[in-house]
Write a structure and sequence with these properties.
Blueprint lengths: L2 H22 L8 H29 L2 H14 L1 H10 L3 H16 L8 H4 L9 H7 L7 E4 L3 E4 H12 L8 H30 L5 H22 L26
Antiparallel strand pairs: 1-2
Helix pairs in contact: 2-9, 4-5, 7-8, 7-10
Length: 256
């Protein structure tokens, strides 16, 4: 076969495979779209006047090492949630990675301030109860637009309580606990919004921002569920320069 013909055939095969992957995605069921769009509209007002300005100011005034350190501490606090869900998904290798990272980052990493695990080649991964339910065959259910929190689905929304129950900050009693949860949750939401700025800036240019954000969330969650079903080496969790999944952040308490 001539080199030119071989190149054309290879390109055709790659395009066919890419199209097949795209064809497997089906937009999520959205029977409550009318209500979801109204909530989405209210969320956009809040985002435009509160969250987006706070996120841009946070990036402007907070040095990147400080943002990274705070984010690492928050992610380290989700280790119990990730470990439990690794175990529930029957993935002992992933559970071992989570436990090893927690030990390294909590000790050598000064309570999670530094991601020592990643620096020595042990990257983290995501796991939450919604993903676990999906791994065992529970469907995502209809799309939901949650007030303030943004895109989700019925399975993930109902799973948030289980993830929050494993939040170690919830073990701090009294007014001190409420203050700690409110402050870390608030700054965590601003930090997360800051990391989502490039993504939302892109998606907001789509003809229908609501659909673009909804489908992006559904694709990402579907990929995480498939990862949990098949096991194997986990895909790394978002690094400090990566864009997180829009929507609720499982395992992190966002208020008092």
């Amino acid at each position: 076969m001539a080199p030119r013909a071989a190149l054309i055939l290879a390109a055709s095969l790659v395009a066919t495979q890419a199209g097949a992957v795209e064809d497997r995605f089906r937009p999520p069921a959205d029977p409550l779209q009318g209500l979801n769009r109204r909530v989405f509209g209210a969320n956009q007002v809040f985002d435009r006047h509160v969250m987006r300005p706070l996120a841009r100011a946070y990036v402007a005034v907070t040095p990147k090492p400080a943002r990274s350190g705070f984010r690492h501490v928050l992610l380290n606090l989700t280790s119990a949630d990730i470990f439990v869900n690794d175990a529930l998904q029957l993935h002992p290798t992933r559970a071992g990675i989570t436990l090893t990272r927690f030990a390294l980052n909590t000790t050598v990493g000064l309570g999670g301030l530094l991601d020592v695990g990643r620096s020595v080649g042990i990257a983290g991964h995501e796991a939450d109860f919604g993903q676990t339910l999906g791994r065992w065959g529970v469907g995502a259910g209809p799309h939901l637009e949650l007030p303030i929190l943004g895109p989700s689905d019925l399975r993930d929304a109902l799973s948030m309580g289980a993830d929050s129950a494993l939040d170690p900050l919830g073990r701090i009693d009294g007014s001190t606990g409420q203050a700690v949860r409110a402050s870390t949750g608030g700054v965590g939401m601003v930090d997360r919004r800051a990391r989502l700025l490039p993504l939302t800036d892109r998606l907001s240019k789509k003809p229908d921002y609501y659909v673009a954000l909804r489908d992006h969330y559904a694709r990402r969650r579907s990929a995480l569920v498939e990862e949990a079903r098949h096991g194997g080496p986990p895909a790394p969790a978002a690094d400090e320069d990566d864009e997180p999944t829009p929507g609720p952040m499982p395992g992190i308490t966002t208020g008092s």
